[in-house]
Amino acid sequence: MNDGLRIIVRTIGGPEALETERFDPASLVPGAGEVLVAHRAIGVNFIDTYQRSGLYPMSPPFTPGSEAAGEIVAVGAEVSGFAAGDRVAWFTGGPGGYASHRLVKADTLVPLADGISFETAAAAMLKAATAEMLIEQIAHTRPGQSVLVHAAAGGVGGIAVQWLKAIGARVIAHAGSPEKAAIARDLGADEALSCPLDQLAEAVRGLTGGAGVATVFDGVGAASFTASLDSLAKRGLMITYGNASGPVPPFSPLELTRRGSLFLTRPTLGNYVDTPESMRASAARLFEMIGSGKVTVPIGLSMPLEEAAEVHRRLESRSTTGSIVLLP
Ligand code: NDP
C-alpha cells in the first residue's frame, strides 16, 4: 500500500525542488537499533532551505527535515526502552523528517510527556535546543545583562526572547516590521525595534546609555553582521548562528579589535548536542522551560506536508512568524 508520503529533493535548487513521492511504509523495516516512526507533525527550520538550495552541501536524492514527532510503529532488534505505540520526537541524527514515516535511530528519540502535543514538540525541539545552546552554553547570560536578539518574532528568535527574559536579561529585540516587533514585545522583549539595520546600532546605544549590549544573538547573517558588531559593548560577544539573509562574508579580525576587543563565535548545534547524553540533557532542559510555562512555542503556520514548497517560499520571503509545522 503506497499510503506513505515524503518529500524528495532530486536536484538542488529553489522551493520547486521539493517534490512529493508516494511510498509503501511497509518497505521501511527497522534494523538493529532502529525504530519506525509514523510522524504526526514535522518541524520546518531554516536549515531545510540551506540544504535544499545547496548552501549546506547535500548529496541528492534526499528528504529534508531536521525534527519531527509521532508514534512508534515497529521496533528493531537491540532496542530497549521503546515500544510500538510510544509517543516520541527527534531533532538530531540528520535530515529525513519531511515524510509520513521514517526509520530513526532509537538513541536519537525523546519520549514525549502526555502534556506535550506532537505539534508543540515538532515546533519546539530543534529551535529551543538552539536557544538553550546560545544562551546557556555559549553566552552564559546573567540577570540584568542587556542583549540584542535578531528576527525576534521568528522560530528560534521568539523562543530566545522568552528564555532570556525568564533568566532575567534585558532583551532588546529587532524584527523586520512593526507588526513583527509587536509580536516580540508580546513575547516579553523590553524593547522591540524594526528600524533599518543601518540605524540599529545607534538605537541600541540609545537604549543602553551608550554602552551597547553584552551579547548579540544573530541568525540573520550577512545583512545584519556589521550592525550587530556595532551594537556590542566593549568585550561583548557576537554570536552569528545562521544565514537567513545569506552567509557572512570573510572579514578581518581587526574589526573586533577596533570595536572594543569583541568575541566572535559561529556555532552549530551539532557541535554542542553531539552525543545521546547531551541530546537528552538538552531535551530535558527545553521541556523544563516549556513545561514550566516560561517558554511558549507559537506556531505561526501549519500546513499539509504536500505544501512544503509553499512553506519554504513563505519562510524565505520573511512572511512567517513563530514556528512552522507540516502535517503528514
Ligand atoms: P526564522 O523563523 O527565524 O526565520 C528567519 C527570519 O530571519 C525571518 O523571519 C526574518 O525575520 C529574518 N530575515 C532577515 N533577513 C532575511 C532574509 N533576507 N531572508 C529571510 N529571512 C530573513 O527561522 P528559524 O527559526 O528556522 O531559524 C532562525 C535562524 O537560526 C536561521 O538563521 C537558522 O539557520 C538558525 N539556526 C541555527 C542553528 C545552529 O545550530 N547554528 C540551529 C537552528 C537554527 P525578520 O523579518 O524579523 O528579520
Layout of strands and helices, then pairs:
Blueprint: E1 4-9, E2 18-23, E3 34-44, H1 46-53, E4 67-75, E5 87-90, E6 101-105, E7 110-111, H2 118-139, E8 146-149, H3 155-166, E9 170-174, H4 178-186, E10 191-193, H5 200-207, E11 213-218, H6 225-230, E12 232-240, H7 254-258, E13 263-265, H8 276-291, E14 299-304, H9 308-316, E15 323-327
Parallel strand pairs: 8-9, 8-11, 9-10, 11-12, 12-13, 14-15
Antiparallel strand pairs: 1-2, 3-4, 3-6, 3-15, 4-5, 5-7
The structure holds NADPH dihydro-nicotinamide-adenine-dinucleotide phosphate.
NADPH dihydro-nicotinamide-adenine-dinucleotide phosphate (NDP) binds at residues 45-47, 126-127, 130, 151, 153-157, 175-176, 180, 219-220, 223, 241-245, 267-269, 315-316, 318, 320.
Quick structural gist:
This protein has helices at 46-53, 118-139, 155-166, 178-186, 200-207, 225-230, 254-258, 276-291, 308-316, and strands at residues 4-9, 18-23, 34-44, 67-75, 87-90, 101-105, 110-111, 146-149, 170-174, 191-193, 213-218, 232-240, 263-265, 299-304, 323-327. With 328 residues, it is α/β, with parallel strands linked by helices.
Total number of beta strands: 15
Order of helices and strands: EEEHEEEEHEHEHEHEHEHEHEHE
Q: What's the level 1 CATH class of the largest domain?
A: Alpha Beta
- In total, the number of domains comes to 2
> Average pLDDT value?
97
Main β sheet profile: 7 strands, mixed
Small-molecule binders: NADPH dihydro-nicotinamide-adenine-dinucleotide phosphate
